[in-house]
Amino acid sequence: MINIDGYCPLGCGQTLRAEETKLVNRVICWAATCPDPLAAQKILQDPMTEHIVRFSFSGSGFTVKHPLRERLDDALLYCELAQICGAMPEPPGGVAGSYLVRLEEENWTFERIDAA
C-alpha cells in the first residue's frame, strides 16, 4: 500500500492509499467508517470533461454539473454558465432534459443527451 497525498471525498481525512492488485491499481479510503471506500476511485474514473445541464419540465429550473477541472482554484464559483441558463426563458428548443454544454469560441453550445 502506498499513502496518497490527498483527502477522502467523503470527509474521512487523509486516509487514501493506492491498492495494487494483479489487474489494476486503485485508490481506496482505509478509514474503517468510510461509507464508500472507492469514492475517490469512482470520481477519478468519470470521463466527462464538459458541463452537463439538466432542465426541468417546468422550464423554470435547471442544475449544472461542472467538470472536475473547475474545482481547481474555485473556478466553478465564477462559471458563467449558470447565469446564462438562468437568463434563458426556456430550455434549448423548448425541450426539457439533459444537455452536454461546451464553450466553443466564446459561445456555449447545447447538445441534448437524454430526456428529462
Distance between the termini: 43 Å
Please identify the oligomeric state: single chain
Largest sheet strand order: 5-4-6-7
Envelope shape:
elongated
The mean pLDDT is 91
Structure characterization notes:
The protein is 11% helix and 33% strand. With 116 residues, the protein is mainly beta. The protein has 2 domains: 2-44, no CATH class; 51-115, no CATH class. The strands form 2 sheets. Strands 5-4-6-7 form a 4-stranded antiparallel sheet, with helices on one face. It has a 3-stranded antiparallel sheet with strand order 1-2-3. Strand 4 and strand 5 (62-65) form a beta hairpin. The mean pLDDT is 91.
Write the layout of secondary structure elements.
Layout: E1 2-3, E2 16-20, E3 25-29, H1 39-44, E4 51-55, E5 62-65, H2 81-87, E6 97-104, E7 107-115
Antiparallel strand pairs: 1-2, 2-3, 4-5, 4-6, 6-7
Give a quick precis of the structure:
Helix content is 11%, strand content 33%. With 116 residues, it is mainly beta. 15% of the residues are buried.
Give structural attributes:
single chain; 116 residues; 2 domains; four-stranded antiparallel sheet; three-stranded antiparallel sheet; 11% helix; elongated
